[in-house]
């Protein structure tokens, strides 16, 4: 149970740092650098994901050993892209589907509801698809419940 809290706290801390990098770089690229919004956001998203991957690999999930090869990094970026898509979907449904077009409604749906749902997806994907290797140094398995190194909680086992 304590390890689960540590994992959640580590994941949240790394996520906050990655968010700060994403936001700070986006602000610089949009402002002084003068890039268009999509280019600036793409570059800041990649930088934020890179910080999050490094933080989770070297911090939160270090007890599982260092991930090998390009696959874990690619899956991590895919999970984060899916989390971003969830945020955009929440915003689109609220703004275009429900007609809630105020700035406050956009903020609540995209940065509020979308961020919460996207973070849940990112946490699940990171712990079950990216950092899920065999037994850890302390004898625990590489999944969130400590019972198996497979995809816990999915219909594929």
TrEMBL record:
Its main location: membrane. The chain crosses the membrane at residues 44-61, 73-96, 108-125. Keywords: Membrane, Transmembrane, Transmembrane helix. The keyword Transmembrane applies. Residues 11-131 form the GtrA/DPMS transmembrane domain. It is a multi-pass membrane protein. It is found in: Membrane. Belongs to the GtrA family. This is GtrA family protein.
């Amino acid at each position: 149970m304590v390890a689960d809290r540590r994992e959640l706290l580590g994941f949240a801390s790394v996520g906050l740092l990655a968010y700060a990098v994403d936001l700070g770089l986006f602000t610089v690229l949009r402002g002084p650098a003068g890039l268009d919004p999509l280019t600036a956001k793409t570059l800041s998203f990649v930088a934020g994901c890179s910080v999050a991957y490094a933080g989770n690999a070297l911090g939160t999930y270090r007890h599982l050993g260092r991930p090998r090869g390009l696959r874990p990094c690619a899956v991590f970026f895919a999970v984060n892209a899916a989390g971003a898509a969830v945020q955009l979907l929440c915003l689109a449904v609220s703004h275009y589907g429900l007609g809630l077009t105020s700035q406050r409604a956009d903020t609540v749906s995209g940065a509020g509801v979308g961020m919460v749902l996207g973070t849940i997806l990112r946490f699940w994907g990171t712990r079950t698809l990216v950092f899920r290797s065999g037994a850890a140094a302390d004898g625990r398995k590489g999944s969130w419940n400590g019972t198996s190194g497979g995809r816990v909680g999915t219909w594929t086992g």
